[in-house]
Amino acid sequence: MNFLAIGTEIAIALLMLIVLAADLLLPKDVSHRRIGVISMVGLAVILVYTFGQYHIGASPTFFGGLFFVDNYALFFKQLFIIGMLFTILFSLEYTEKLLRYRGEFYVLLLSALLGMCVMASANDFITTFVGLELMTVSFYILVGARMTSEDSSEAAVKYLIVGAASTAVMLYGMSLVYGAAGSLVFSEVCRNIHLFYAAGLAGVIMVIIGFFFKLSVIPFHMWAPDVYQGAPTPVTALLAMGSKAAGIAVFMRILYTAFPILGNFWLPLLAGFAALCMIGGNIMAIRQTDIKRMLAYSSIAQAGYMMVGMAAADLAGMKAVLFYAMLYVFANLGAFAVLTVIDTERGGTSRRDITGLAQAAPLLAAVMTISLLSMAGIPPTAGFAGKLYLFTAVVERGYLWLAFVGFVMSMISVYYYLMVAKAMYRDLTPEEAEYAAPVYVPLTVRAAVLVSVFATLGLGICPEWLASLTNAAVQTFMR
Amino acid sequence: MQVIIFRKGIFMGDFGGLGIFFAIALIFPVMALIPAFLLQPRQPTKEKGIPYECGVDTVGKTYVQYRIGYFLYALIFVVFDIETVFLYPWAVRFGQLGLFALLEMFVFVGILAMGLWYAWKKGALSWK
Amino acid sequence: MISFVEMMHLALHVGLPHFLLLSAVLFAIGLFGLFTKKGIIAVLMCIELMLNAVNINFIAFNHYMPATDLSGQLMALFSIAVAAAEVAIGLALAFRIYHDHHTVNVDDLNHLKG
Fold first, then answer.
1. List of chains touching B (3+ CB pairs within 8 A)
2. Residues A391/A368, Cβ–Cβ less than 8 Å
3. What is the ipTM of this complex?
4. 3-state secondary structure of A124
5. Which residue, among A407, A144, B45, A292, has the nearest Cα to C100 in the 3D structure?
6. How many residue pairs from chains A and C have C-beta atoms closer than 8 A?
7. How confident is the model at residue A176 (pLDDT cuts 50, 70, 90)?
């Protein structure tokens, strides 16, 4: 047994237990910031450790190949750890002020992270299922973590019902695939010709539908806006970047390694749903007044863009998806760090609450604008490079119409992203003078937003650095 | 024909006998209930219609809310009870698995113990 | 056209199709209840039905499979544990929304919209 292969997961699990013990030993009424600091330091160490795991030769495995630590999995693990690290950083103040169960919050964040990391490495349906459930079950609680908010509990109930039902559908699909193919290991499933029988096909369709629910692909998206709006703001950030990226990581692995012989069947399906997501997500985002709800629809559209790269189904497409997932994390970090401060200071995230932010906190307004422009794909932000990679990859595979839809919809998305910028930068009327009062921005938030802005602009100006990392990530995938 | 139908192996699989047993078992209570239903004199009164509660009149509403304490116990019980599902396969193969599996199980139970410690410390086990 | 004898044979010999039919029916009942029931407890029960249908499927497939691998049973074990965790959270949330919204009716939870 090669325990080094699951070193990342063991370290995260240990960190989780340490944080839990720290919470239990700490007196109730003292500040819980130090628990957040412990988890951040731990995550930083783990992040550095994962860089050492990149390799050129054969990938280390665990449990006889069921747990597969290739560069692709490592890339996604780093993405999750970065997202989690900076989310904890900018939400220290929010957690301290607005949440009642602060220690548990950090423990659950880490357990969600553990689930995501397991998902990224999963090489069979059991590991996939366990990782997925560890993540979603943690998120059910995290979404309802704001005890004083009725929206939070409503969102948690909705998420639980839809999440559990979609889990059941996906599991039923897995059982049919198991019955047809005689195995739960991806590489064995793909070898079995019985997958072409009716039961196998039904199973494949149900697994795909289950993932569409988890990724909130239109028309399985109805839970996402409500959940994103009701959840505590840092949790919304993690739902948008972590949960979605984890879903994409394992969905891509399943499609490419377990069901490749059915490619003719799911490729057009994927392209169609990608177009549906981009169109529906962007159009429905226009009329939203709550920024979190708008970002929920926007994240549906972003999932659509990433599915464009998946529909290309080659190395260039995969690289583009990885690149886009990473830059989306940085864009999200910036936007949600700002929203978290707004939520803490002004008690809401509607468009009215960000009015006059340019005078109240110029740094936050600038960060928000740059992050949203990156999501829209305007140069010189990283979003432009990401979309360029995605659309060139898919055009080379002959889906010109898909790239066209993506391009037009990106243009439309600029409109609602700039509506937010307009609310922040417009002149205030005399009645609104109170909005110009300075907003307290903690040092931790400043650090988080500066990192996100530098990453967004840096990756936009010289995308080669991340591109070479994605290159290394996909090299070990197709073996 | 008779012979073929009831010869084991052609019609009666593993569960055929069980099905016949079930059908016969169903006939007996029905045979007891139907004559009683047909022969009984019907004279309903209000007194007879009220719910039976040990022969005395019912007091208060029958719908009562339980204390939340029961609920917390039940939740904790469900979670820890289900975890034993993983202990059984391990216990069955304990002899062949050796020391490594024993250590693994200590890790597993240790994590569960952390959960119990948490529940204890947060007061979920104390009856308030 | 199958004869009476063959029909009886199919009906009385319990095999893989019977288990699959049972699990499909259970799953369908759960799915139907999920869309029609309003109380959150009933909805949770329906989800539990669906998950148990899956367990039947896994174990039946595993039993009738020619090769000796136990991954189906293993999956059922994990599925049971996860279902218990989900239900524990679901019950806690049911208590929470009763406290917050004074209802356990899922249809009445319509504050979030836009």
1. A, C
2. no
3. 0.92
4. strand
5. A144
6. 128
7. very high
- Facing residues of C105 across strands? C39
Q: Tens digit of pLDDT for each residue in A112-154?
A: 999 999 999 999 999 999 999 999 999 999 999 998 888 899 9
Q: Three-state DSSP class for B10?
A: coil
> For B59, which DSSP code?
-
Mean pLDDT confidence for A417-444: 87
Q: Write the pLDDT tens digit of every residue in A68-99.
A: 888 999 999 999 999 999 999 999 999 988 88
Q: Name chain B contacts of C80, Cβ cutoff 8 Å.
A: 82, 85
**Residue C20 to chain B, least CA–CA distance (Å):** 16
Mean pLDDT taken over chain A = 91
| Interface test with chain A among C35, C45, C80, C93, by most A beta carbons within 10 Å | C93
Asked whether the beta carbons of residue C114 and residue A160 sit closer than 8 angstroms, the reply is no
Alpha carbons A110 and A101: distance in angstroms, whole number: 15
Residue A192 structure tokens: 């079995």
Query: What's the pTM?
Result: 0.90
**Tokens read off for A244:** 């979605």
The C residues from 43 to 102 touching A (CB cutoff 8 Å) are 43-44, 47, 50-51, 53-54, 57-58, 61-62, 65-67, 69, 71-72, 74-75, 78-79, 82, 85-86, 89-90, 93-94, 96-97, 100-101
Task: For residue A290, give the 3-state DSSP assignment.
Answer: strand
Selected residue of A19, A24, A126, A138 to mutate for chain B interface (largest B Cβ count, 10 A): A24
**Closest C-alpha to A321, from A296, A303, A300:** A303
Q: Do C54 and A144 touch (CB under 8 A)?
A: no
